[in-house]
Structures are given as structure tokens and as C-alpha cells.
Amino acid sequence: MGKIAIIGAGVSGLTVAQLLKGKAEVVVFEKDTKAGGLIKCERINGSLFHTCGGHVFNTKNQDVLDWFWKRFDKENEFHNTDRNSVIFLPNGQQIPYPIENFAYMLEEKEQKTFIQDLLKIAGNGDYHAANFQDFLQHRFGETLYKLYFEPYNKKVWRRSLADVPIDWLAGKLPMPTVEEIIYNNFNRVAEKQFVHSTFFYEKQNGSQLIADRLSEGVDIRCNAAIEQIERVGDKWHVNGETFDEVVFCGNIKDIPSVVKGVDIDAYAKAIEELQYHGTTAAFCEIDANPYSWIYLPDNQYEAHRIICTGNFAASNNGALSPNRITATIEFTDAISEEAILENLKRIPLHPKYLTHKYNQYTYPIQQKNTREMIAALKMKLAENGFYMTGRFADWEYYNMDAAMAAAMKTKEKMLII
Length: 417
Prior knowledge:
Blueprint lengths: L2 E5 L3 H10 L4 E5 L11 E4 L2 E4 L11 H8 L4 H4 E5 L3 E3 L5 E3 L11 H15 L9 H9 L1 H16 L20 H10 L10 E5 L5 H8 L3 E3 L7 E4 L2 E4 L2 E3 L1 E4 L6 H4 E2 L4 H8 L2 E13 L5 E3 L9 E3 L16 E9 L4 H8 L7 E14 L4 H13 L3 E3 L11 H14 L4
Parallel strand pairs: 1-2, 1-13, 2-9, 6-16, 10-14, 13-20
Antiparallel strand pairs: 3-4, 5-8, 6-7, 10-11, 11-12, 15-18, 15-19, 16-17, 17-18
Helix pairs in contact: 1-8, 1-13, 5-6
């Protein structure tokens, strides 16, 4: 059997490790103190804190489903839950998500302008959007764009939405036709086709259960930051050990500085110019409510959503009273504790601060030629037994299931297996 180094013990690295286990000698290098990457969780005063987001599992990819449920007990380890999401509008209205299915709940003036928007959209024919702003305006109309889509997404992306490309959108948002929007409003139909409209969530320990289970039987070296990955002859040298192949599941921005022995200088500038956002996850107690996700377009505070993880599983709430649950309140990029506390005074549901965590990399931002550049780099490195997969290796806005699917495809391309 060959010897393979995997860089990074997030979802992608752990999936690759499990796929290769028994077929090769596998060593996983992880710079953090434990495996899990963005799906790591911690206990704070007995309550479960998702340190980045609130990760749930679902997929329409049958290969991923089959692989996942061979490793987990669907009935005994998971809840199967319908998503119950809401938008808290600045005027105090609470409109279920997705907003376009519940336009009948808007104020009369907004209903009328929305109807005019739909008539205009219907007359556009087969329209192809050029950017994210263009997509939102021509898919949902100017009324919903101004009321919700623009203020919410500007909080997330921190830039003009005209500067945000749309390649990442597939599977992220509902894509209804005008006919479907009208039908859903007439018949009070809640959308069940978009990603995570139903989802599985762990009864205990949240997504840390997934990280821990996928770590079993794998040689993971934590606190092992990678200083150099060097190609010498037909081998790779990683942190003093020799390997036949490398699977890189870290951040592509590290590649120019750590990968030696293969000429990739032509890609360094493009990699350096890749843009991204981070996330500050503020862990709080909030008033009990029936929701899973709460979207916050209101510009009076910086937070863009509340993930009510205390509603995902009762075990997430520790010893809280029945009228309080835990939640993660998300801010784009870094924000100080002082600023978080000031924001919490204005955020609904009386949040009480517990702790917070800043993750520098959470939202990769693609430019026009990003995918083309990364595909060329991956092809060059693969010729030397070096493979890339993962959210920030591929610079793709992967959910957990998409990361697993990409890892499966990468495993099939490896020469030694």
C-alpha cells in the first residue's frame, strides 16, 4: 500500500481519510487542537456551541447518502426535522422563508408592487443574469429585492451585489418560476425543494458527532501546522515524513508558500487576489421560539441571521429554563466583544451573550476566472500526485454534503488507489 498525507481534518479531509482507510497508509495533518474544521462544536456551561454556523445534514446526492448512513444510525442518532425559517422585517413583520411564497402576508402596497414585478419578470423571457444583484432583481423583483434580498445580502457580502458572481448559487436558493410563485401564494404552499427544507440533526453533540465519528481509525496529527510540502523525485516530503501522494484539504492561499518542487509560480498572483469573508459566531441565550433560522435584513444592527441551534436538539440547551434556548448570532467578518454586546441590545428575542468565535475564512468569493484558474492548478499538481479538495482548496461555497461529494470524486482521481 502507498502512503498518503491529507492536509486538514475538516469534513473534506476526514471524508477522504475514511475513503482511503484500508487502501493506503493515511496520515492526516491538522493545525488545530482537534478535528472538525468548520463543523467543530464546544460545550459552554453545558450548552452546545457551533463555533461556525449551525451545521445540519441533508443531500440529494445518493452516493453521499449511502456512504453517510453506513457510518451513522439514522434512527437512534439523528432527528429528521422540517426547516422552519422566518424573516424579521424592519417594520416588525415576521414573514416565513422563502419570502416570495408568502407575499400575501406583505402590506397592501408591497403586494401590489410585487404583482407588477411578477408581470414584468414574466415578460423578460429566458433572461440570463450577469451577477448576483441582477439575478435577485430579475428572479424575485424590485419589491422583494429592496425589502429583503438587498439589505440581507449586503450584510453577508459587504459589497455591492453587482460585484458578486453567481456561480456559487446552484442549490443555495429556491429558484421558482413566476408560475410557481403565484401558485404557492394562491395555495399557501411552503417551499420544500430548496436545500435543507428538511434536514437531519444529531440528538447529541451536534456536528461534532460527525467529526468524531469520521476521525475513528484515522491517524490524525493535531497541532501540526504544515511548514513545507516538497516534491523530491517521485515522493512528497511533509513535515519530515515521506509520502507517495498528498490530498490538500486546507486553504489554497497557503499553497504558493508551502508547496515546493513543482513550479506553480504562474498561479501565485491569482491565488493571492482571491477574496473571502470570515464570520463571527456569537453564542447566546435567546427567548424560546419555534424557528430554526431567523434572517435579519434590518440595518439597525450588523448581524445577518440567528441560527436557533437550541431548537435542533434539546441536548444543545444544557440546563437553560424552558423559556430560553441557545442560538448562534452571525456577523460577517471580525467584530469585537464590545460591538457584539452593543448590537445585542437591538437584536430581537433578548439575546444574552455567552461567548464568541471568529473564523477568518468562511465565505469564498469567486471572480470571473476563479474556477478556470483552480482547475488548471489542480491538473498540474495532480500530475505529480498532489490533489486538492474542500471548501477553501476548491474555493467553492460547499455545504457539508457537497464537500463529501467532492472528496469522493477526488479519491477516484488518485493514481495510487
